[in-house]
Amino acid sequence: MFLLAATVVSAQVTFEAKVSKKKLGINERLRVDFEMNQDGDNFNPPDFANFMVVGGPNQAVSNSWINGKRSYSKTYSYFLAPKRQGTFTINQATIEIDGEIYKTTPVPIMVTSAVETPKDGNNADYIASENIHLVAEVSKTNPYLNEAITVVYKLYVSPNTGVSNWREIDNPKYSDFWSQNIDIKGLKVLNGTYKGEDYRYVVLRKTVLYPQKTGELEIEPLSLDITVDVPTNRRDIFGTRLMNQVHKTVSAGKRTINVKPLPERGKPSDFTGAVGDFNFKVTTSKYELNASESLQAKVEVSGTGNLKLFELPKLNLPSSLEVYEPEHAENVRTNLDGMSGSISDSYTVVPQYRGKYPIPSISFSYFDLRSQSYKTINSNEMVIDVLEGPTTNSAQDITSVNGNKQRVVLNDNQFAFVKTNTNFTSIKPTHFFKSIAFWSAMILPFLAIPLVLVFKQQKEKRQADVFGNKIRKADKLAKKYLGEAKKVLGNKEAFYIALEKALHNYLKAKLHIETSEFTKEKISNLLNDRGVDDHTIKDFIAILEHCELARYTPIDQVEMQKDYDLAAKTITVIDKEIR
After folding, report:
1. How buried is 280 (Cβ within 10 angstroms: 0-12 exposed, 13-18 middle, 19+ buried)?
2. Which long-range contacts (CB under 8 A, 24 or more apart) does 424-433 make?
3. Cα(309)–Cα(22) distance, rounded to whole angstroms?
């Protein structure tokens, strides 16, 4: 009975969750291991509510024999970062072993306020925190309302430390600001100083802000989760120092902007919020025309400032002119100095009667940042001369500029401008019957019948070529998934990221799986089950592994082209073999 009980206990399945600590600061990391003593399928982790997964899942398998006794262990590991303080629970994970479902016991975790990082020169987390800095550089902290300021986010890295990857955690929302990001084409590593020491840095983001409220406004922080390569005291057989990878969360911190209101003294009555340095003009497409013809009157403001954030002045035209709603146009570009370019309103004007129509001067006011005073620009007065058309008895009816339309009194010669004489010319009649077009329409359909038969025969032959169709379909599929990688061929980092993503997306589409949840061994088994040749599977896995290693080793464009061609060939072969 004792031996039987011992055998039953030794054969019992265990599946449990282990955590690195049950109490941690909000700036620390938590490791969670789901460990089992027998291999299983369909592992399903918990949702990790209130935590962010910064690493994993990592899989480790241990299989050993000691004194004739087998010891087996399989572990799924996750690295978590808490999102806020409080007491939370790591919920149950499940796995299927020999047809039975096993669950782990929930584990409570307490998250406290930030704890002090130990100042240990051999501690990888401490080294990473001392050598990685995210800084938000603000061009001006006390701007006027609607004055442009810029925020440039720089990531500083010490010379002996490396960064493998990063991703944004919190994106600034820029409440109470009009904002626009400036595109950065390619990240360039530059040399600079941070607190008097030499550092390398990259500019991650540039943003132009226009404050829309006065008083103290906060710029929300940008937070990144970074994979940091920290040097260790160990070296490989060639004497190269080994690196240790740690995950680190860095934040640029909040920045407070004190926005000054625009002065009330000297503010013009027609001021609509324009701040900057501007030019103003009113132009027309023509100054002389006939009645019922049209002209374009354009009100335009150009220069540098908050061009999209104020209203243009309205044209004041005589009431007897027919005026349509203006068409608004913007030709504005944004750089670190703010918005520059021009905006305009184009009015379509159609005079109905003969006469002279004045377009009075209108004004545009703005706040000039250089002189810190208001300026007003007046347009020139113009006169539109309508040469031909009906006339009225009252000149005031035509040239009135007030907003109320007046009744126009017509005379007996209002249609005198309409021409009544004719100038007819004879044309030769044409007949369609028995013409060249008639006989062409009759004969061409009969001539097209043999072409249709040949085309149909070729189409049926192509559809019957199953093997050829499969090759063509596979080639098209390879080009589809590898198109992004081909665009960045020559840029090592971007190329191998795009190539690895293309391979994963291909598996996701063909096998209907999330490849991030599977190991290379699992992918190999799935492809093998679908009838893919072992040699092809090895090529596919080798490409995935090379994508991971190539980012950290010198690679030239010739080798990148070889990897691209091998990936395209492998996808084509898999698509032909897969069932």
Report:
1. buried
2. none
3. 52
Task: Tell me: cis bond preceding 351? Omega within 30 of 0 counts.
Answer: no
> Which residues neighbour 244 within 8 Å (Cβ) at sequence distance 6 or greater?
124, 229, 230, 231, 232
Question: The dihedral of CA 230, 233, 237, 238: what is its sign?
Answer: positive
Give all strands (DSSP E) within 8-68, no chain letters: 15-19, 23-25, 30-36, 41-44, 51-66
Q: CB of 307 within 8 A of CB of 332? A: yes
Q: Burial level of 414, CB count in 10 A (0-12/13-18/19+)?
A: middle
> Residue 488: is it exposed, middle or buried by C-beta count within 10 angstroms (0-12/13-18/19+)?
middle
> Which tens digits make up the pLDDT trace of 526-542?
888 888 888 888 888 88
Q: Is 203:153 a contact under the CB 8 Å cutoff?
A: yes
Full-model pTM: 0.51
- Could you tell me if 192 and 159 are in contact, meaning their C-beta atoms sit under 8 angstroms apart? no
Strand partners, 207: 151, 181
* Nearby residues of 197 by Cβ (< 8 Å), 6 or more positions away: 158
Taking the C-alpha atoms of residue 455 and residue 471, their distance in angstroms, rounded to an integer, is 22
In tens, the pLDDT along 465-514 reads 665 565 555 556 666 667 777 787 777 778 888 888 888 777 777 776 66
Q: How far apart are the first and last CA of the chain?
A: 52
CB atoms closer than 10 angstroms to residue 211: 22
